[in-house]
Design a protein that fits this description.
Blueprint: E1 6-10, E2 14-17, H1 22-35, E3 38-41, H2 52-65, E4 73-79, H3 86-95, E5 98-103, H4 123-132, E6 136-138, H5 152-167, E7 173-175, H6 181-189, E8 194-198, H7 200-204, H8 228-238, E9 245-247, H9 256-259, H10 274-284, H11 291-303, E10 311-320, E11 325-326, E12 331-332, E13 340-347
Bound molecules: N-carbamoyl-L-aspartate and zinc ion.
Length: 348
């Protein structure tokens, strides 16, 4: 097999990104905008982005924070609550700036306390989304304290995904940041209105990474890293060339002192070198030829948006990720801090 040393791709998009707000937004936005043309912006701010007016205002703050030499289109999402109305969904679609609605089971992850307590409360909103083709983006973990943290995604499939698809068979649904073989199989076996995003960190690491040489708070995220067999299943899905699996970094910045704490926050900051990390993961299984579809085509196709036309280049070249980055208060530790990444990206 010949070794590939450079790879030219259509400019990619990130279909799952946390940009935060204020000074934090200013600090992280250029990292994503250097690589990605567009990103699906998660709505878990405090307070959460629950209506179109808030989404439009947040979009303006993102555009205002964008350095003038970068082009980037934020695709907005609403945060589903027990009270989201059908009228709100209609308005979201009519706005042209809202491209999805995110469901966080209440208490599942960072800033999810206003999340949905029971999907039965969201019938009118979900029916309207099904009718208008507005995708539902699902954080698919049960919050039941009886369920082992490593099983929460699998149990969500039985308890919530199957009933959801039975009740709303035409609903466009993205199973966000899948982390298990169970989720990959479920998505693969579902009809074409069901897709999934996959992060770089779940392709590169298994749960051992949280405990090498001591506890590693920067490898703690939700859904939590899983066993090696699950990582391998995700790699197979991502490199399968199937249009249902596409890139979503779930890059989720938290200041260093809030992660290196007695009760540390969940989330990894991968945006700094996201495309390089994905290239490493695909290269490791000789599937670089599948990266462009996953990173640049299938997400846009699923959301009914045009593919990008500009290009980026990835070169096989080892470089070291900075040990820390400036952030809101204190600093931000990127994934691979102070360590080598095997690929280097350039915009063309
Ligand atoms: C995310 C965050 O920090 O906003 N954290 C994470 O671990 N991925 C929330 C989320 O997507 O679960
Ligand atoms: Zn997320």
């Amino acid at each position: 097999m010949t070794t590939i040393n450079t790879l030219t791709l259509t400019r990619p998009d990130d279909w799952h990104l946390h940009l935060r707000d204020g000074e934090a937004l200013k600090a992280v936005l250029p990292d994503s905008a250097r690589q990605f043309a567009r990103a699906m912006i998660m709505p878990n701010l405090r307070p959460p982005v629950v209506n179109t007016a808030m989404a439009m205002a947040y979009r303006q703050r993102i555009l205002a924070a964008l350095p003038s030499d970068l082009k980037f289109e934020p695709l907005m999402t609403l945060y589903l609550t027990d009270n989201t109305s059908a009228a709100e969904i209609k308005q979201a679609v009519a706005s042209g700036v809202v491209h999805g609605v995110k469901v966080y089971p209440a208490g599942a992850t960072t800033n999810s306390d206003s999340g949905v307590t029971d999907l039965a409360h969201c019938k009118l909103a979900l029916a309207e989304m099904e009718k208008l083709g507005l995708p539902l983006l699902v954080h698919a973990e049960v919050t039941d304290a009886q369920v082992d943290v490593f099983d929460r995604e699998r149990v969500f499939i039985e308890r919530h995904m199957l009933p959801l698809l039975k009740d709303y068979p035409a609903l466009k649904l993205v199973f966000e940041h899948i982390t298990t073989k169970d989720a990959a199989d479920f998505v693969q076996q579902s009809p074409s209105n069901v897709a999934a995003t996959i992060t770089a960190h779940h392709l590169l690491m298994n749960r051992n990474a949280m405990f090498v040489g001591g506890i590693q708070p920067h490898h703690y995220c939700l859904p939590i890293l899983k066993r090696e067999e699950h990582r391998l299943a995700l790699l197979r899905a991502a490199t399968s060339g199937q249009a249902k699996f596409f890139l979503g970094t779930d890059s989720a910045p938290h200041a260093k002192h809030t992660k290196e704490a007695a009760c540390g926050c969940a989330g990894m900051y991968t945006a700094y070198s996201a495309m390089e990390l994905y290239a490493e993961a695909f290269d490791a299984v000789n599937a670089l030829d599948k990266l462009e579809g996953f990173a640049s085509f299938y997400g846009a196709d699923f959301y009914g948006l045009p593919r990008n036309t500009d290009r980026i280049q990835l070169r096989r070249e080892s470089w070291n990720v900075p040990t820390h980055l400036p952030f809101d208060e204190g600093s931000l530790i990127p994934l691979r801090a102070g360590q080598a990444v095997a690929w280097k990206m350039q915009r063309l």
